[in-house]
Amino acid sequence: MSLFSGIPLGVTLPMALLLLPVAFGFLIYVYLRHGRGERRVVSSVLIMKKLRRQSVSRKKFFPPPRFFIELIILSLITLALSGLYLQKNSRHIAVLIDNSFSMQSKVTANKTLLDRAIEQARAMIDNSPGSNHYMLYVTSPKLMALTKEFLSGRATKSLLGNIRSEAAEDRIGSAIKKISQTGKYEKIIVFSDKKIEALSPDGKLPANTVFPRLVRSNKHLENLAISSLSFGRDIRSEHSLKIKAVGYTSREIVAQILLERADFTTSGPAFSEMLSKTIRLNPGQPQEVRIENFKATADAYRVKLAPHSINSQYTYDAIDSDSYFWFVPDQAQTTIGLISPYTINELGLNRINTLKFKKLNSTQLKTDQLTTGAFRAIIYHRTIPPVLPRYNSLIVLPPVDSPFAAGDPTDETTLSHWDSSHALLSYLNPPALKISSLIPLRVPIWGNEIINSVSGPALIAGVSRDARVVISGFEIFPFQGRKNPALSILTLNILKWLTESSLTGIYRTVPYTISEDQLSSADLLDSIAAAGTRVAAESNSTVTLNRPGLWKLNLANNDYKLVALNYFNSAESDNRNIQKVSVTLPAVRELSGNDKTELNTFMIALAAALLFIYAVYQLMVWTRTLPGRLL
Amino acid sequence: MSLPASFSPTVLKQLELLRISTRRQFLGSRQGAHMSLKRGHGIEFSDYRKYELGDNPRHIDWGVYARSDRLYVKRYQEEQALTAMITLDTSRSMFLPEDNRKWERARDIALALSYIALMEQDLVILSAPGAFVSPALSGPRAIHTASTLLNGITLAENFNFRKEILKAIARVRLPTVGIFISDLLMPFEEIEGIINGMRAKNLDLYVIQLLGPDDLTPLGGSGNALAVDSETGEEIAVDFDEATLSEYKQLLSDHNKTIKAFLQGARIPYLTTASTEKFEDFITHKLPATGLVQ
Fold first, then answer.
1. pTM
2. A370: helix, coil or strand?
């Protein structure tokens, strides 16, 4: 344990330091009770003995010089007993602060888990030897070091104040592994709310990792969140708004959903209540609230979820950010992009009157235009995107060497099983499908096997990064209408599924990078915190927005465009399984003999030397009173 | 051994002007400058005595013989040397605390008195109870012997001071002048015993009380300490403030008054001095006031 911040001194047995006040107290007591002052030889105490007032002001304590010598000797002996050492080498420590979304959880009225983590990190630095050097990391939006080189404790402490919570997940397990793989650190101290068991189920976390506890209980961390919102047409209902709410609580609670519309005035958006609904949330189970016949007439909307006042006073909502949800009326285009070696006509897509298609080339494929929401969906025909897209996509016949393909094409295969409940297979009789050639698919983690064959998965669908993605291992084009009913129905189902829920149109997920011509800046109009923030565009075209809220993109000629950004991640909003104990993995490297200089011997020697000098002095004084002394 | 530094040539010259005086006449062992009880040759006429066979005819008063036809011889008061017995308190209280320099001052007083006596051809016996009793020193050169003797005195073990002093006095055969130098910081009964022992030897006694600064103002007048008695080792915690110091001074004054009353009753001159007092002033002004020196 370090004795003082900034000084590389430490003690092996801190409890032994408790002897110090005890020893001091004892010494003072002895002086008060017996000595009280210097021992002075006087000619005679004959007269002094007769003093009646000799005990007056007995409580005064004027310690003689001898007292201080004894005090120093006592202190030295106590320090020696406590195992005082001087650290020779500085230690390199990685401090990893989890600044993910969940760290916004309020542990008290005005303190979040992140605040507590920063406080603890500061205290840890204060209690560590001053010779230590630190590298400060944050987990979100991605793992990054806040400095390029090691910092002193003081510099690290000042840097801690700059850390803000991000609307992102932490991926703390992989962050620790990455930091550990650098091999530069003797210790990794992780300030996170994530449970260690959840971080590393295989128990392969680096051994030199320490997890200080941030909270003792999750009593105040119950949280309500809006997990998703969809707006659009579906089979049963036109123009319905579906809001999914979830309560990460220990018991059923009653919550209230409030829908507000935002109309723009010169001073900004003015929110007015449209309707409110009371719902009952079971612990951890999403509850869907449907608002029928919703007509989007306002510029933007805000949904707010809060505990109902009829709940007991012990109902909390730890994270505000996930209890709000913003969306703007569907601004998405109806156009579907096509990237294919064939033309739109060759694929028969021109026959679908309700949708517009636009052929793109591979150069455009690589541009950022595809991330701007300019298209409602993109079809990758016989090709694949360089990265998994963040917009609705259809990938047909991925190349054999792509990560989506599991093997070589096979001729005529037989379907083995399928998920008939999925919307893609509505009105479809899968055995009617004639698949002449199939590329077996590899199922990504987010994907569900919709149609499976004896050769492997044939059709996969799922939601990846808020985007719906369908991968087909067989050709679904050309669209031939009634000439090929089974395939036509499947093609229409796929296109309908990709376009029915224009999630990417009414809101986006942070972080969100947008490119627009003549885009000068973006203003955060409404948010839980930091409303009024302005982000300038890079190269007058691109901004990256990383806070949930209602944003206004400022375009040329005073034109603007609204963007709603939200964030939800059940792993971040669910505080029920939080780390509540400090854990130090067993193999943390303790200071070895090479790292520290034991000062016990030195202290004892110093005390002995002082004692010797003092004894010699006393002896000299004493010998002056010995008989035979020549005066 | 040379005299201590306090004996400057100026001081020595002043001392040479002084002589020991006595209030009584004593028998001496040799000729000197003091009127003796011995009748014989001298300047001062004493009385007549009938001539006896063997008397020196030169002492016959022929005028009386002419008038009375009887032979009478004239007798004169002889002038003899005085013996001064200087007794020093050699107990530990005179040595400690060292910075009080009481012993040094007592030694200097004794040497000064010895110098005065020896310069007048008087005899000096130095008595240091527990250490030595010197033979009668005589002649000016004997001052160096006296100095050597006194400088050779060391801090002694505790001893029975009263017993030792009476043992030293027992060696005095003829009544003489007695000078007792001590701090007198001892129970009154002990002082009384010592003085009475000296009186029993019919000494013409003078008492000089010598106190150190710590005896007059302990601990500089304020503060606390564990006071350790230099002789008995008795420890006492003291805490001096203005009031305590005032009480202490009163008690010391009472102690001294008791001694003074006793000495006055015994017609013994008594003089108090402090070791911090200027030595020259003490010898040339304060000491003659007692009548011990003129």
1. 0.46
2. helix
A630 to chain B: which residues are within 8 Å by CB? 152, 154
Q: What is the pLDDT, as a whole number, of residue B112?
A: 93
Calculate the average pLDDT of chain B.
85
Tell me the domains of chain A and their CATH numbers: 2-87+599-623 (no CATH), 92-218 (3.40.50.410), 222-327 (2.60.40.10), 335-501 (3.40.50.880), 508-563 (no CATH)
Domain architecture of chain B: domains with CATH:
9-27+81-289 (3.40.50.410), 32-80 (no CATH)
- Asked if A629 and B155 come within 8 Å (Cβ–Cβ), the reply is yes
Q: What is the pLDDT of residues A399-410, one digit of tens each?
A: 999 889 998 888
Query: Which residues of chain A make contact with B218, given a CB cutoff of 8 A?
Result: 42, 48
Q: What is the pLDDT of residues A476-518, one digit of tens each?
A: 998 888 888 888 999 999 988 887 654 445 787 778 877 777 8
Q: Which residue on chain B is closest to A49 by alpha carbon? A: B236
CB contact under 8 A, A41 and B238: no
Q: What is the pLDDT of residues A105-140, one digit of tens each?
A: 888 878 888 998 999 889 888 887 777 889 999 988
Q: Hey, of B232, B244, B246, B252, which one would you mutate to test binding to chain A, going by the most A CBs within 10 A of its CB?
A: B244
Confidence band, pLDDT 50/70/90 cuts, at residue A588: very low
- Asked whether B252 and A47 are in contact (CB, 8 A), the reply is yes
